[in-house]
Amino acid sequence: MKKFIEKYGHIWTALYVFIYMPWFIWLEENVKTYTLLHVKLDDMIPFCEYFIIPYLLWFAYVPAVMIYEFFTSKKEWYYASAYLFIGMSICLLICTVWHNGQDLRISVDNDNIFMSAVKMIYTADTNTNVFPSIHVFNSIGVFIILCKSENMKGKKKIKISAFVLTVLIILSTVFLKQHSVVDVIGGIALSGIMYLMVYCIDYSKAVQYIRGWFAKNDGFERRKI
Questions:
Q1: How many whole angstroms separate alpha carbon 162 and alpha carbon 164?
Q2: How confident is residue 37, by pLDDT bands cut at 50, 70 and 90?
Q3: 100, 68, 63: which is closest to 84 by C-alpha?
Q4: Among 135, 154, 190, 214, which residue is least crowded by beta carbons within 10 Å?
């Protein structure tokens, strides 16, 4: 265990799950009144139970990419953690201050295995706290993380497969009536914002300035008495 901690001490960021899950569960249990998110385009999209396949693959896709990053690159793991965990917190914060939900779900039965799976998802997940879509945000996030990975250079087949899966997962959220188009747009927008924050902005000068200020002032202002 000691050797594992020494080698993989960056696992501490995974403790975020103990922040996310209680927060998410609290929202699911306590949000009863909310702003309804429903646009005309939602009504034009037909329900298709077969999209339950990519929807459920999300639960393996996101952890698989994060586990890969954890064991292959400490630096990339920190970037991935910042991207997903900060973004997911923003999603929950939005739902906390602005209660939202949707009324798109249809009545489902157990006609086939796909409909049974949809019914299971409907039962486990409420129709509240939908904006921005975490399903959409995380799917785009892990795709970006894969594309930015040094170990993925030249592996076009994997990237293409990940892209196709990401698109299918995004589509599944609306074809299963789990999310409004508005939620999808919100998830895409947040993905772009987090990409800029994590991968595009150079924070090195700010860090150097802060370090220099603390070194000069010993962390506090000294005054003569």
A1: 6
A2: very high
A3: 63
A4: 154
* Residue partners of 42: CB distance under 8 A and separation at least 6: 102, 104, 174, 180, 181
Question: Is 176 in contact with 49 (CB distance < 8 Å)?
Answer: yes
Instruction: Flag whether 41 is in a domain.
Output: no
Q: Are 50 and 168 in contact (CB under 8 A)?
A: no
CA pair distance 88, 218, nearest whole angstrom:
35
Calpha distance 211→217 (Å, rounded): 10
Domain total in the chain: 1
For residue 123, being part of any structural domain is answered with: no
Please give the model's pTM, rounded to 2 decimal places: 0.89
21 within some domain:
no
The helix/strand/coil state of 97 is helix
Domain span holding position 158: 50-97+130-200
* pLDDT tens, residue by residue, 46-99: 999 999 999 999 999 999 999 999 999 999 999 999 999 999 999 999 999 999
CA distance 173 to 179: 5
Q: Which residues of 24-58 are buried (b: 16+ CB within 10 A; e: fewer)?
A: beebeeebeebeebeeeebeeeeeebebbebbbbb
Q: Provide the token pair at 206.
A: 């700010």
Name the DSSP letter for residue 71: H
Q: What is the dihedral of CA 44, 50, 52, 54, to 10 degrees?
A: -100
Residue 7 lies in a domain: no
The two three-digit tokens of residue 147, written as one number: 């594309």
